Amino acid sequence: MWFRILVLAIGGFALGTNGFVVVGILPEIAHELHVPIDLVGQLETVFALTYALGAPVLAAVAGNIARKRLLLFGLLLVVMMNLLATAIPNLAVLFVTRMLSAIGAALYTPTASSVAASFAPEEKRGRALALAMAGLTLAMVLGVPLGIFISSAWGWHMTFAFIACLSGLAFLGILVLFPTIANPPKIGLRARLALLRRPVLLVTLLNTAPWVLGYFVVYTYLSSILQQVTHLDGVGISKMFLLFGLAGIVGNALAGYSTDRWGAMRTLVLASLALGLILCAFPYVATSFTGAAALILIWGVFDSMTIPPQQHRLLALTTEIPGVILSLNSSVIYLSSAGGSALGGLLIHFTSLTALGWVGGICQFLALGVLFWSSHLMNKAQQKELKRKEEPCPASMSVSQ
Questions:
Q1: Half-sphere exposure of 384 (CA within 13 A, CB side)
Q2: Which positions, given as ranges, span the membrane (predicted)?
Q3: Which of 113-122, 146-155, 299-308 has the highest mean pLDDT?
Q4: pTM here?
Q5: I need a labelling partner for 321 at 20 to 30 A (CA). Which of 56, 142, 187, 252 fits?
Q6: Class for domain 191-382, per CATH?
Q7: Per-residue model confidence (pLDDT) at position 143
Q8: CB 207 within 8 A of CB 312
Q9: Which CATH superfamily is domain 1-186 in?
Q10: Nearest to 334 by CA among 212, 238, 217
């Protein structure tokens, strides 16, 4: 069981690296293809937008397809698209490969979670899910900086070749080692979207948007900022991304402790305030290696303190189909990341790199406003539910009479 779940984690590591490594190699791609950096940045926008719109639709449409076949097809698509990106270094081809590899990721990632859960007995299900998803976390910590290092040493084409090899390894592991897997109950697209009719759920979901939007306004072009403002080379940039990933692990652990100890609301208020200040200061403090490292360390910690407590708040609102509400939150994350990458490209085109930090910081303060709004709606909903429970039901009244 654990070895099979480890194979799923390898696939997650490959797809997580595939999803985020482009932000670290934008300068190399732009230089070789002789195109503006803001245009190359839209490779991340296309990937995120395709994943966000494709994941819920594909989950509903592919409900009857065998889980093993779905995993294999998703990985095969990622392998083929990364090999194509390696063989044909053309911007138009890169856009197509990013779109299709995003579809592969949208097929694989949620399926891998459900398969990992089905492999494990109930008392070990949490650990099985954690191991399966560890690949995505490790991609941010190790995969992205390793991809940047490969790009600086042997060219960005080899970064895509590296991702293709990892995905191919996971493909072979699943093909050889995995048995036939029973399909979970199918939930249609209409049932998934029905949750959005509840105002408190909708606003709480929207709370994710400005956090992620502000993050990707800066993160998508972080390599360009470190190159032009901090004056780092490829190795130095990869070290900064490694530091960011390690800080994210610390922040993720702190988020769990803080949410349990002081509550999700206080954790999110602290994180939003800190992120707003950090991003506003980033273009001015990141002029030296020490300043950039300090800000990236703090940014990585507080950024990772937003998603876990936000998921905690969402799960507190619905116990019916928790997997669906979390998948909708994932779609919001990817839609917002696409918007952040696109907005960052526009800011660079019409202003300068300095504007990225200010806009990213303002988005965090906007998230704080939406957070208080959603909290107000949650309190009203809880009071209404409490009042409903306290009212005597007609049956009990008639018995007493």
A1: 7
A2: 43-63, 70-96, 102-121, 128-150, 156-178, 199-222, 234-255, 291-307, 355-374
A3: 146-155
A4: 0.77
A5: 252
A6: mainly alpha
A7: 87
A8: no
A9: MFS general substrate transporter like domains (1.20.1250.20)
A10: 212
